[in-house]
Model the fold of this input.
Amino acid sequence: MKVAFITSEVVPYSKTGGLADVVGALPAALAELGVEVSVFSPYYGSVRKYPTERLPHLVSVPMGFRSEWGAIRRGGHFYFIEHDVFYNRGGLYGDGGGDYKDNLFRYVFLMRAALEYLAQTGAAPDILHAHDWQAGLVPLYAKTLYAGAFPNAKSVFTIHNLAYQGRFWKEFLPATGLGWNHFTFLDLEMHDQINFLKGGLVHADAITTVSPTYAHEIQHPVHGWGLDGVLRDRRSHLHGILNGVDYKEWNPAADPHLAAKYSSKSMGGKAACKAALQKRCGLPERPEAPILSIVGRLAEQKGVDLFVHGADGLLQHDVQVVILGTGERWLEDAARSLAWRYPGKVSTHIAFDNAFAHQIIAGSDLLMVPSKYEPCGLTQLYALRYGTVPVVRTTGGLVDTVEHGVTGFRFDHYRPDSMQWAVGEALGVYRDSERWAKMQQAGMARDFSWDASARKYEQLYRSLTKA
Ligand code: ADP
Done:
């Protein structure tokens, strides 16, 4: 069984969020099951530091009035689409000034260059697996422009986040190579714009999303971002498959980023990680003061506004707070201002720093994930493995992964008092070291490895290719 992933980011080469972790780790788990995955993504500036070889193939993609040419690079099962003007930039999707204005062209090029390469080399995969809006047109391309090249290929489209849809001015449609017959309500059109993600939902042979709860939620107007109707129409083809964790990267017993290693059987090293974190953050090195942390994109989705609103209440307790993230300017400012207002108690870091993320998750006592919505969420899974107790909002994948009172704490309402209540409850348990240790152990024992989820993807692929 051969599968081609088409994705806009992949660990370790490029990353803004969980999508990169997932497409980085899933192929190895699928390989164990006899599924051969090749991964196609852009040759961004960040990929240059890795060794890759340029293949002798050039691909050309017609885009309206012009054609764009690109090269293909390879490193193991990763294939990179090289086009410097499109991809060799400071950011992946945009920079401080917002999204890049030519994102439609950049991601049409990614999709079509990958398909062109597969067509040219005669390496027709059994499954084309497209991830998020940046690959949303792949299922439609497979049925139209590339139907001749891949007559038997089936398509799978995975929603990692329904809110990001790839919406573009309709006059750009010719650049996609698709005809105006596709610009209808039952196809790519939404609110008189082209919607890439909708294209994936309408045309894929199967749709997946990254947790069972999110698969239900997105069929409801509250979480459907205008596409709940389309998802309800296609619900018999929609599957919620929980993301896994790459425990080779996220394992406190073998994590090279940590000041000391530890495991569920020998927790001593966690105290050293906490002391090292306090030192790095300029916080008083007090082992008894619980550290609450946030690691992630500073976006409204993540509940950063809720956290900041509720922080004054939380900081009445004897706690320390560490925040690591980048994102929307107003939330970055809000997170910074918290550190100014509470020197010695709050430490804010506006940066994207993987090693530091590991150190914070290991060194903290509580990890806050107060998301407004959360397709799956990975940081709470990392926290569980690191003996750091997650406090999460009852939404999406957080429901499927955190058990209230057993492995962590949940609160329902998107309100500061609701969050404060949950943290209060957590701090009550923290003060009872026996109960706390039991909760840490329960979390560390949970297995969110890829094995079970990879099997579900494999079964899905097989069900499609047999049909
Ligand atoms: P999302 O994909 O919505 O951003 P996830 O929880 O699924 O959220 O995945 C986020 C991933 O990105 C995690 O691996 C997290 O550690 C990482 N991450 C997010 N922000 C940062 C940051 N500022 N520095 C380091 N890693 C980060």
Summary: DSSP finds 18 helices and 20 strands in the chain. The pocket of adenosine-5'-diphosphate is lined by residues 17-19, 21, 295-297, 324-326, 352-354, 357, 376-379 (CB under 6 Å). The chain has two domains: 2-244+451-466, 268-447. Residues 103-120 form the longest helix (18 residues).
